[in-house]
Automatic annotation (TrEMBL):
<feature type="transmembrane region" description="Helical">
    <location>
        <begin position="172"/>
        <end position="192"/>
    </location>
</feature>
<keyword id="KW-1133">Transmembrane helix</keyword>
<dbReference type="Pfam" id="PF12679">
    <property type="entry name" value="ABC2_membrane_2"/>
</dbReference>
<feature type="transmembrane region" description="Helical">
    <location>
        <begin position="145"/>
        <end position="165"/>
    </location>
</feature>
<dbReference type="GO" id="GO:0140359">
    <property type="term" value="F:ABC-type transporter activity"/>
</dbReference>
<feature type="transmembrane region" description="Helical">
    <location>
        <begin position="110"/>
        <end position="133"/>
    </location>
</feature>
<feature type="transmembrane region" description="Helical">
    <location>
        <begin position="17"/>
        <end position="36"/>
    </location>
</feature>
<protein>
    <submittedName>
        <fullName>ABC transporter permease</fullName>
    </submittedName>
</protein>
<keyword id="KW-0472">Membrane</keyword>
<feature type="transmembrane region" description="Helical">
    <location>
        <begin position="254"/>
        <end position="273"/>
    </location>
</feature>
<feature type="transmembrane region" description="Helical">
    <location>
        <begin position="56"/>
        <end position="77"/>
    </location>
</feature>
<dbReference type="GO" id="GO:0005886">
    <property type="term" value="C:plasma membrane"/>
</dbReference>
<keyword id="KW-0812">Transmembrane</keyword>
Length: 278
């Protein structure tokens, strides 16, 4: 299994996917530094604690709104063709003829993607928190920071598990489209949850929008985990930027659901892979 994990890392390095991601991340962090510096400009001339808290929440919301997209697309486009793509090229057939159980290959691939992308997510989280701390100060509640880190990194196994499951069912391109659309549906559900309270609609229409947003979030919980992370990290300052952080945040029950969702997607993908003919 260790060989499969190392091969997964080497594949991402060989394709220069990780290198491109790191270069673009450096560019993103440079822009984020400029935005954080601009938002926090007034605090240098003096400001109360409430305004400093609002600025910090705004900076965090902006950073992690786009940071969630970076993690999601890196996880999706790294693993969307891991099974179907290698099967079409004949690589998988040659590997599985060796005395290696299929489950070890699948689990090794999963650990490889989750560990590498999860490590990247950890570094991205730390960089954005440090930039925010420098410009607007940061909460000293390290429990909230650690919980937020777990939620942010927790989107990686969810996305990889679902992407590998889709790769067992669809072609490489088909799974890429499927995962992108599914993530977009989850993002749309989160956006509906954020703005429904600010729309001039009747109460029954607002309830319908709430149910629709919740259903879409259940289909793809990655964006919901990101919204929960922002809520914990900003200590519930959901009105700072309503378009990004408004609405009711996902509950602890949703986090538990996301864990079971990930385990189910991982288990179903492994079961389908073991029964699949190549």
């Amino acid at each position: 299994m260790n060989t499969i994990i190392k091969a997964t890392w080497q594949e991402m390095l060989r394709r220069k996917m990780l290198l491109i991601t790191l270069v673009l991340t450096a560019l993103f962090l440079g822009v984020f530094w400029f935005i954080a510096d601009t938002v926090a400009l007034d605090s240098r001339s003096g400001g109360d604690l409430l305004s400093q808290f609002a600025r910090r929440s705004a900076i965090l919301s902006l950073g992690f709104f786009f940071g969630g997209f970076v993690i999601a697309f890196l996880a999706i486009f790294s693993s969307f063709s891991v099974i179907s793509g290698e099967a079409e090229q004949g690589v998988l057939q040659s590997v599985l003829t060796r005395p290696i159980p299929r489950w070890k290959w699948y689990v090794g691939r999963w650990i490889g993607y989750v560990s590498l992308i999860g490590g990247y997510a950890l570094l991205l989280f730390a960089a954005m928190v440090l930039i925010t701390t420098f410009h607007a100060g940061m909460t000293r509640d390290y429990g909230d920071i650690f919980t937020s880190l777990l939620l942010f990194v927790g989107t990686v196994p969810t996305l990889v598990s679902l992407s590998m499951l889709g790769s067992s069912l669809f072609s490489g391109i088909g799974n890429g489209v499927f995962m992108t659309m599914l993530y977009g549906a989850g993002w749309l559900g989160g956006m509906v949850e954020k703005v429904r309270g600010f729309l001039p609609v009747e109460p029954h229409v607002e309830q319908t929008l709430s149910r629709t947003g919740a259903l879409l979030s259940l289909l793809m919980p990655a964006d919901g985990l990101n919204r929960r992370m922002q809520y914990v990290l900003t200590q519930g300052a959901g009105e700072t930027i309503p378009f990004l952080t408004g609405g009711s945040p996902p509950s602890q029950t949703f986090v538990v659901y996301s864990i079971f969702f990930t385990l189910f997607a991982f288990g179903l993908g492994l079961w389908l892979f073991k029964r699949k003919d190549f």
